[in-house]
């Protein structure tokens, strides 16, 4: 498993927590930050998946 997949999944989780915290507290800046981090984590996780497929091929 590529390290980007692991880091991406972690970043996604942190982003989800921030996004939810922002929604609960009404902090739109924190919510937007969480959404951005979650999206970046998803992209990084996808890159890791592609690396794994290339390595396995």
Automatic annotation (TrEMBL):
Gene3D superfamilies documented for this protein: YjbJ
Region (Disordered): 1-57
SUPFAM superfamilies on file: Hypothetical protein YjbJ (SSF69047)
Domain CsbD-like: 4-56
Family according to the record: Belongs to the UPF0337 (CsbD) family.
Full protein name: CsbD family protein
């Amino acid at each position: 498993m590529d390290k980007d997949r692991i880091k991406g999944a972690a970043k996604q989780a942190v982003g989800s927590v921030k996004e939810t915290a922002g929604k609960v507290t009404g902090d739109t800046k924190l919510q937007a930050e969480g959404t951005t981090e979650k999206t970046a984590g998803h992209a990084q996780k996808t890159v890791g998946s592609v690396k794994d497929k290339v390595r396995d091929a």
